[in-house]
């Protein structure tokens, strides 16, 4: 079964007639960007993916983003968006949220898995403890926390986001600042994908993986606001080491790979 998409009048699958578009070609080297990559056990990280460029959220966020630990890091774009998001949350009285996890290395993933397995072995047989730990955490070398665009946001009372008033507010607001929740399997995990992709996913009610599938099928998503096109999202299969797009003139466009043989262009009109 394919993606189950919400039908909304603000989304169409055609180029707006009034747009003046010009052809552009991008090389793979220009497209290496992890923001839209699905990295899991079935889709390993590309060998040429550069290491994440991260800094301390507490330091670069100027103390405006609550964090569990001063050692938690993320990328510059992600932290800037977190600052805006948490500023809005505070203005609505939502104070009991914090970033509990940021970017990690493969070595840190291994350490976490070993530590959790040993903890579970206090009450469970070794095989059962190891299996439960693997279900709860990314296997070393997989998962979007290896990048600089993903964080986990938790409630201070330990409740699920949907069950907590402040968590509900986070879910209502996050897409306006470019964040989406990746999947139900990791309910506290949020990916910074930019406002264009986040708006499209929210309107269509698709999680990250199903959104990519849908975009592969459609090739074009236009998001309208006030009767006018606001975002244009294009998807093109890689042709060897190149991808070609017809991009609107004078629009701000972000180009990236999705780790499944496609290049994506998110344009703000």
How would you explain this protein's 3D organization?
With 269 residues, the chain is of the alpha+beta class. 30% of the residues lie in helices and 28% in strands. Strands 1-9-10-13-12 form a 5-stranded antiparallel beta sheet. α4 (106-120) crosses α5 (126-136). The protein is globular. The two termini are 33 Å apart. The model has no long low-confidence stretch (mean pLDDT 91).
Summarize the structure.
By secondary structure, the chain is an alpha+beta fold. It has helices at residues 28-31, 57-60, 76-91, 106-120, 126-136, 165-173, 195-204, 208-218, and strands at 11-12, 21-27, 54-56, 73-75, 97-101, 150-155, 179-183, 186-192, 220-225, 228-237, 242-248, 252-257, 262-268.
Q: Termini, distance in Å? A: 33 Å
**Rounded radius of gyration (Å):** 19 Å
Query: In what order do the strands lie side by side in the largest sheet?
Result: 1-9-10-13-12
Enumerate how many helices there are, as a single number: 8
State the oligomer.
Answer: single chain
- What's the shape? globular
Structural class: alpha+beta
Low-pLDDT segments: none
Give a quick account of the main beta sheet: strands, pairing sense, barrel closure. Answer: 5 strands, antiparallel
- In round numbers, the mean pLDDT is 91
Secondary-structure element order, as H and E? Answer: EEHEHEHEHHEHEEHHEEEEE
């Amino acid at each position: 079964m394919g993606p189950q998409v919400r039908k909304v009048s603000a989304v169409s699958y055609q180029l707006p007639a009034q747009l003046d578009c010009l052809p552009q070609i991008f090389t793979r080297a220009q497209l290496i960007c992890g923001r839209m990559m699905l990295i899991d056990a079935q889709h390993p990280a590309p060998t040429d993916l550069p290491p994440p460029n991260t800094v301390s959220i507490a330091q670069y966020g100027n103390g405006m983003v609550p964090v569990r630990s001063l050692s938690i890091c993320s990328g510059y774009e992600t932290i800037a968006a977190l600052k805006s998001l948490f500023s809005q949350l505070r203005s609505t009285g939502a104070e009991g949220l914090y970033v509990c996890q940021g970017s990690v290395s493969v070595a840190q993933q291994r350490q976490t898995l070993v530590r959790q397995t040993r903890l579970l072995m206090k009450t469970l047989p070794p095989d059962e403890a190891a299996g439960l730990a693997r279900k709860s955490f990314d296997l070393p070398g997989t998962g979007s926390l290896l990048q600089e665009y993903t964080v986990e946001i938790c409630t201070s009372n330990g409740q699920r986001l949907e069950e907590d008033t402040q968590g509900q507010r986070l879910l209502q607001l996050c897409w306006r600042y470019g964040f989406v929740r990746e999947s139900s399997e990791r309910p506290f995990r949020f990916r910074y994908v930019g406002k264009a992709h986040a708006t499209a996913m929210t309107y269509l009610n698709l999680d990250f993986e199903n959104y990519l599938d849908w975009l592969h099928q459609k090739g074009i998503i236009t998001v309208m606001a006030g009767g006018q096109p606001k975002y244009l999202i294009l998807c093109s299969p890689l042709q060897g080491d190149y991808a070609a797009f017809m991009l609107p003139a004078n629009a701000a466009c972000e180009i990236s790979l999705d780790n499944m043989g496609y290049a994506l262009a998110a344009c703000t009109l």
